[in-house]
Inverse folding.
């Protein structure tokens, strides 16, 4: 016989959390100068801008975008109209409504960034590629340095996941606030900026379960320094009279990410389910082989010593179904000797 | 005093092409219930029963061999199975199908009845559990069936329809019936199609591969 039935106790399923750098080059930190946004790579620049990882020489290392940046406005400001006969219907309004529906599941709720901006009219959205974040964003690893070109005024954003004693949920899952600080902790300076927060709300929302980071444009438009802003403003938004243009306001946030000192640090998180199969090889089984190099054409063993003391060298474990169809296969790192005096236990791991 | 190494060997498995196909089929056929072992890649002519350092070193050249990664092609791996036979066995079971290669014209049929030599003390026998036959490219056959084994597993396998590109099909039986395809487009500009028929004894583990050639006749 060449097949052995596996018992129920030979199977163990284990679920393990795995974190890894999110970016396609395997580096946990994506420097601002390595964020590549050639317009030719963007599928729909009206709605969003794709950001790729580039080498130091500017060549692109990945053909898939690592994240995309979009700008949304509740009234459609900051973009040309789809049809001049239909006011307010533009890409930025579509983006705002799309993410509002995703985050709040309510078409009447505006984005709420806290005191000072409880009914936000516009948003920046950083949408991480699913292949990069895998199952979810790993909250404590998020660090984003933004700049307006003056290094002393740079903004260091993280989320408050390590300061939070309880997790808050929206319709899209867990939600954390964006704060100034690092590695999931709000800085002491940021905690003291209550006045600025009261004027414009928080920096935004970190939504790890859907791979999305919402940034509050009003907060970034605050003056640098004590107010904790960057002084950058979306074009034709935030003014008394809304106008429509094709400036692609998402490029303003992308520009603040692409400065020399800037970086975007993020890790992915996924639950890997492993199926362990324990293959138990008894001493009195699998001691002969059908390998043609050890038998003659008629089937006789070519070594007389192997008649009473056969030795085989297993290299491969095959896992079969009832129909003896080969479903999965594993190779040992080197041949394992088997004879009538040896038993083996091989743990085969199948990842899903 | 030393410590005994009581850890098990841990190896990562990959799904075969057949495994992915059955997983996609989502009909419960992807269910691991059995295992088998093989010594693919091992060349036993490297085994040296005259090694000057003694019997502990007979397999030295084999044991030091680095092993290749697993292939996902289920017809190209687990070729040489390790089998269980009584101690003192001098002859290993081998299969005989009566052909070293098979040539069929378009639409022609052939029935193969494998026999196992040197099994259970018999010079030649038909295995009770039958034979597993796998055709490497199912498109080359308009019909590929196994008959003679009346078990649920065999019935399930023999009624499975496989469609698509180059995928294998496996049937169980004591007699394997092949009918070559009549479809001209598979030939392209060629006059023949080639594939591989692999037959494995379900009891003995003995295996034989026979090249199959289909000759185009419908011009």
């Amino acid at each position: 016989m060449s097949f052995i039935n596996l018992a129920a106790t030979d199977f163990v399923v284990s679920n393990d959390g795995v974190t890894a750098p999110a970016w396609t080059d395997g580096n946990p930190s994506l420097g601002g100068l390595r964020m590549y946004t050639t317009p030719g790579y963007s599928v729909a620049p009206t709605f969003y801008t794709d950001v790729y990882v580039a080498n130091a020489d500017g060549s692109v290392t990945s053909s898939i975008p690592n994240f995309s940046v979009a700008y949304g406005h509740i009234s459609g400001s900051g973009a040309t109209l789809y049809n001049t006969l239909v006011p307010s219907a533009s890409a930025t309004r579509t983006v705002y409504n799309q993410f509002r529906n995703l985050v709040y599941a309510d078409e009447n709720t505006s984005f709420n960034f806290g005191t000072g901006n409880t009914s936000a009219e516009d948003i920046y959205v950083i949408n991480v590629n699913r292949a990069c974040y895998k199952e979810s964003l790993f909250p404590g690893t998020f660090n984003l340095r933004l700049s307006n070109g003056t290094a002393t005024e740079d903004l260091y954003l993280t989320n408050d996941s390590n300061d939070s004693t309880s997790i808050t949920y929206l319709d899209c899952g867990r939600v954390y606030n964006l704060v100034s600080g690092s590695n999931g902790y709000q800085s002491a300076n940021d905690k003291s900026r209550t006045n600025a927060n009261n004027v414009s709300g928080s920096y935004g929302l970190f939504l790890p379960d859907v791979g999305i980071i919402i940034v509050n444009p009003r907060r970034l438009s605050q003056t640098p320094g004590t107010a904790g802003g960057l002084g950058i403003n979306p074009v034709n938004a935030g003014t008394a009279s809304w106008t429509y243009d094709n400036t692609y306001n998402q490029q303003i946030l992308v520009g603040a990410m692409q400065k020399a000192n800037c970086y975007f640090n993020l890790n992915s998180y996924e639950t890997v389910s492993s199926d362990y199969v324990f293959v138990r090889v008894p001493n009195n089984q699998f001691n002969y082989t059908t390998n043609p190099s050890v038998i003659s054409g008629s089937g006789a063993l070519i070594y007389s010593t192997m008649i009473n003391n056969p030795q085989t060298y297993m290299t491969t474990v095959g896992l079969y179904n009832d129909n003896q169809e080969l479903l999965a296969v594993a190779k040992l790192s080197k041949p394992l000797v088997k004879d009538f005096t040896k038993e083996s236990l091989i743990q085969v791991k199948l990842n899903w | 005093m030393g410590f005994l190494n009581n850890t098990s060997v841990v190896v990562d498995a990959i799904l075969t092409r057949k495994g992915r196909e059955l997983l996609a089929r989502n009909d419960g056929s992807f269910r691991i219930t059995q295992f088998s072992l093989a010594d693919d890649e091992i060349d036993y002519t490297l085994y040296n029963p005259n090694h000057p350092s003694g019997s502990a070193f007979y397999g030295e050249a084999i044991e030091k061999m680095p092993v290749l990664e697993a292939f996902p092609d289920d017809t190209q791996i687990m070729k040489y199975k390790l089998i269980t036979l009584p101690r003192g066995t001098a002859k290993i079971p081998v299969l005989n199908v009566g052909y070293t290669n098979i040539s069929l014209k378009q639409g022609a049929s052939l029935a193969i009845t494998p026999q196992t030599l040197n099994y259970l003390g018999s010079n030649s026998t038909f295995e009770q559990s039958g034979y597993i036959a796998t055709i490497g490219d199912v498109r080359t056959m308009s019909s590929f069936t196994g008959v003679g084994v009346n078990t649920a597993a065999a019935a399930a396998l023999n009624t499975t329809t496989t469609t698509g590109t180059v995928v294998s099909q496996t049937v169980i039986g004591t007699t394997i019936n092949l009918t070559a395809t009549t479809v001209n487009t598979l030939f392209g500009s060629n006059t023949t199609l080639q594939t591989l028929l692999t037959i494995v004894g379900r009891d003995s583990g003995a295996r034989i591969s026979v090249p199959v050639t289909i000759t185009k006749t419908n011009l």
